[in-house]
Design a protein that fits this description.
Layout: H1 2-85
C-alpha cells in the first residue's frame, strides 16, 4: 500500500511539473510571437519609409536630368540661331 501511495505521489508531482512546463512553454511561445509581430511591424514601417525615400530620390534625379536636358537643348537652340546669322 505504501509503495502505491509513493507511486501516486510521484505521478502527481510529475503531472504538476508537466503542467508548469506546459504553461511556461505557452508563455515563451506567446512572448516569441509578440516579439515577432512587433519586429515585423517595425520592419514594415522601415520598408515603407525607405520606399518613400527612394521615390523622393528618383523624383529628384528625374528633375535634375530634365533640367540638365532642358539647359542643353536651350544651348543647342541658341547655337543654331547664332549659326544662322554667321
Amino acid at each position: 500500500m505504501r509503495a502505491l501511495e509513493n507511486s501516486l505521489k510521484q505521478a502527481n508531482e510529475t503531472i504538476k511539473v508537466c503542467i508548469i512546463m506546459f504553461s511556461c512553454t505557452r508563455a515563451i511561445y506567446f512572448f516569441a510571437y509578440q516579439t515577432y509581430e512587433s519586429d515585423m511591424d517595425r520592419l514594415r514601417q522601415a520598408l515603407l519609409k525607405s520606399e518613400r525615400k527612394n521615390e523622393e530620390i528618383e523624383q529628384d534625379i528625374s528633375r535634375a536630368y530634365i533640367d540638365e536636358l532642358k539647359m542643353k537643348t536651350d544651348r543647342l537652340q541658341v547655337n543654331l540661331k547664332l549659326s544662322w546669322f554667321m
